UniProtKB/TrEMBL annotation:
<feature type="binding site">
    <location>
        <position position="72"/>
    </location>
    <ligand>
        <name>FAD</name>
    </ligand>
</feature>
<dbReference type="Pfam" id="PF02511">
    <property type="entry name" value="Thy1"/>
</dbReference>
<keyword id="KW-0489">Methyltransferase</keyword>
<comment type="similarity">
    <text>Belongs to the thymidylate synthase ThyX family.</text>
</comment>
<dbReference type="InterPro" id="IPR036098">
    <property type="entry name" value="Thymidylate_synthase_ThyX_sf"/>
</dbReference>
<keyword id="KW-0808">Transferase</keyword>
<dbReference type="GO" id="GO:0070402">
    <property type="term" value="F:NADPH binding"/>
</dbReference>
<dbReference type="GO" id="GO:0050660">
    <property type="term" value="F:flavin adenine dinucleotide binding"/>
</dbReference>
<keyword id="KW-0521">NADP</keyword>
<comment type="pathway">
    <text>Pyrimidine metabolism; dTTP biosynthesis.</text>
</comment>
<feature type="binding site">
    <location>
        <position position="202"/>
    </location>
    <ligand>
        <name>dUMP</name>
    </ligand>
</feature>
<comment type="function">
    <text>Catalyzes the reductive methylation of 2'-deoxyuridine-5'-monophosphate (dUMP) to 2'-deoxythymidine-5'-monophosphate (dTMP) while utilizing 5,10-methylenetetrahydrofolate (mTHF) as the methyl donor, and NADPH and FADH(2) as the reductant.</text>
</comment>
<keyword id="KW-0274">FAD</keyword>
<dbReference type="GO" id="GO:0004799">
    <property type="term" value="F:thymidylate synthase activity"/>
</dbReference>
<dbReference type="GO" id="GO:0006235">
    <property type="term" value="P:dTTP biosynthetic process"/>
</dbReference>
<dbReference type="InterPro" id="IPR003669">
    <property type="entry name" value="Thymidylate_synthase_ThyX"/>
</dbReference>
<keyword id="KW-0285">Flavoprotein</keyword>
Amino acid sequence: MRPEGAAVAAVDPEIEFRSEITVQLVDHQASDLGVVRAARVSTVGEIAQTETRSDGYVEGMLKYLMKSRHGSPFEHNYLTFLVTAPIFTVRHMMRHRTWSFNEESARYREVRPVFYVPDADRLLRQVGKPGHYQYVPGAEGDHDRLVEIAKESYGAAYAGYNELIERGVAREIARIVLPTATYSSLYATCNARSLMHFLSLRTHRQDATYPSHPQHEIAVVAEEMERQWRELMPITHAAFETFGRVAP
């Protein structure tokens, strides 16, 4: 604890503190009918791209594929998201090796002074054993002190980074003093099958076949990806929900 009356270090006014994590669908080729075409080619040969099917037929086929775990037809599509999030959240995404990533490089450009601080609604304490815990609110004053310490730390780290840059130290070395709460942006591309696997682990649904308990920040990313994917492939999404949110 800081001694009573101790001064708070000044923070560079250029530094931005942010709680928002953003996900934008920037490109895609994804549809429910596309999954059906990919599945039917194995039994009837080439399918005309102009062919249409009733929603009832598409729903029946997608439910069959999902229930039977015939996953490959869900791979013939893609979705590309632009994600802006703290580095520790980006690294959570990269644990899923079925994505393609292009992230902004701190070797080739100077890092912008934008850092993550949790908002007041963020649950701060973890109760229970690893793998069987839950998050609960912090005690009175926890959030204020967390933000205060974070801002001081970020300010000191960014001042050190700037000093190294001004001394001529290479950006790829100077960046090592920056925290994982530094914001980064990346393009992330996957197919619907990979996305369903990601969502099954990075969202929390108590009624899922295998309920997961992801960290809040990566869950924000996953929930927004799911919302945008659901608009493109509503019947596939419904089948995913029906069969316990398990990727086929």
